[in-house]
Amino acid sequence: MRFKREHRLKIISFILAVTLWYFVVLGKPVEKDLEIPIILKNSNPNYLVEISPSEVLLKVEATRRILRNFPNNNLKLEIDISRYSSGVHQIRVPIENLNLPSDLKVKEIKPNLITLVIKRVGIKRIPVKPTYETEENFPKRFKLIIKPSYVTIKAPVEVLVTTYYIPTQPLDILKLKIKREIEADLVLPPGILSVYPKKVKIFYHE
């Protein structure tokens, strides 16, 4: 009978120890780093928007129980850019947009500011210019006909004013002389968002 009583006391002591450990460990505040992506809302298709960085690091403090139940996998920071005009903007990280639980304490935000660059986008028709793999052993006389000879590019306005032509992929003029006709890809210079059409036909004539 005495053995059973001691056995029961050991079980009760073990349960009390586990309960105490549970409240001490899970109730003690700990820190955790959360990587939160930045999502842009209400962007205008007539503008090119660049943001740096694309995510922020949030250091929070809470109990393990709270952090375990906190749905941080789908956490994202949304920024409405409809009220910003063209140019470069330094924006304070709107931490209030995250709707964090009241018992979750924010210890640090990295960075505190994000850079938002908004560029107006336009279109322009410009000529196509052939480029060559090498200019050695060129035929003495030849003529290239490019169809279409002009293409439409889309880019930020500041890029459009300094772009005067679109180059083709490097051409092998001797192979072109034999084939007489090829389809060539166009090479987009830095800053060009798109070109239409993406390919041109090139005809060789002597």
UniProtKB/TrEMBL annotation:
Entries under Pfam families matching the protein: YbbR
Domain of life the protein comes from: Bacteria
InterPro entries: c-di-AMP_regulator, YbbR
Record protein name field: YbbR family protein
Record organism: Thermodesulfobacterium geofontis
